């Protein structure tokens, strides 16, 4: 059997990067799944608090993230969609894995360095990191490993930024199995998403991200037509005349072309963004942005409408979805934990 696990942090309303890099693939996996495949998607709130969150804002973000997952087409009957903190066994397995996880390996990971804006040679015991770096942020790959291993996931769809963590999860599984003397945990494979990274509108050399300070750097799945147009109008491009697709020389323009290429259902028959760009060759950059806004709005309109419907209701849809998901996830986690607890001697 195939078990697919992936997670998303409730750190804000999801944007086009989350959609093209993750959520759209999750829906595709759901719609293509055969009967021997189970799909488990988690709203990872325990990960969100590795950076301080305002409690009320976090509660809102959790609801919005679940609503967005339903709005893009995930079905709580066909997959397991749950809040990570509803399944305490994730934290329990994390502790157990922590007892054999290597500090050296964790200190070489890059994520905590980039979150704290430290350089790649930073060491957790350097004076500059020591006070800023919290234990949870440092060890969160162990929690991520627990998330995956507790459901015996065989495949994990992630963006390129996460492949290092998957390797760590495989290490954790192998290490645990070695100590236990039996194959309790499954080493998962990476399913790299085909879509390239969507870049920030204001800084096309950085990825679009929920937690970047500038709200104009990202297009949310819930943005209105006019918000989409406004954000695109001020997107950073260049002063070269005409439209061409050239990611290294024209990152801003190329990012817009890629976004439209990925969301345009007709695609004008183009096989790739470069071919798609030919359609717009003679346009000014302003006209290109209007064109992209039209494509983005056309794709997001039905998602936005479903989102409003779900969030605007009495909350029953979300409560029910969360409850069904939590029950299924607890069951799946518990069956692994029985073996794990026995293996460590509990
Ligand atoms: P945060 O800034 O809080 O880390 P985020 O936007 O990076 O938020 P995550 O919840 O960390 O989103 O990641 C969820 C999923 O979305 C992951 O699979 C990640 O690889 C993918 N993802 C995030 N940003 C992008 C992007 N710009 N392009 C493509 N995929 C992305
Ligand atoms: Mg992220």
Description:
With 346 residues, this protein is mostly helical. It has two domains: 2-197 and 314-344, Rossmann fold (3-Layer(aba) Sandwich); 222-310, Tyrosyl-Transfer RNA Synthetase (Orthogonal Bundle), CATH 1.10.240.10. Helix content is 52%, strand content 8%. The protein has helices spanning 16-32, 45-48, 55-71, 89-98, 103-108, 111-115, 127-130, 135-149, 163-180, 225-233, 251-263, 273-278, 285-312, 316-344, and strands at residues 2-8, 37-43, 80-83, 155-158, 189-192. Helix 3 crosses helix 13. The relative contact order is 0.15. It binds adenosine-5'-triphosphate (ATP) and magnesium ion. Adenosine-5'-triphosphate binds at residues 8-9, 11, 17-18, 20-22, 158-159, 161-162, 197-198, 207-211.
Give the arrangement of secondary structure elements.
Blueprint: E1 2-8, H1 16-32, E2 37-43, H2 45-48, H3 55-71, E3 80-83, H4 89-98, H5 103-108, H6 111-115, H7 127-130, H8 135-149, E4 155-158, H9 163-180, E5 189-192, H10 225-233, H11 251-263, H12 273-278, H13 285-312, H14 316-344
Parallel strand pairs: 1-2, 2-3, 4-5
Helix pairs in contact: 3-13, 4-8, 4-14, 8-9, 10-13, 11-13
Bound molecules: adenosine-5'-triphosphate and magnesium ion.
Q: Which key terms come to mind for this protein?
A:
single chain, 346 residues, mainly alpha, Rossmann fold, Tyrosyl-Transfer RNA Synthetase, 2 domains, three-stranded parallel β-sheet, two-stranded parallel ribbon, 14 helices, 8% strand, globular, binds adenosine-5'-triphosphate, binds magnesium ion
Could you write a compact summary of the structure shown?
The chain is mainly alpha-helical and 346 residues long. It is 52% helix and 8% strand.
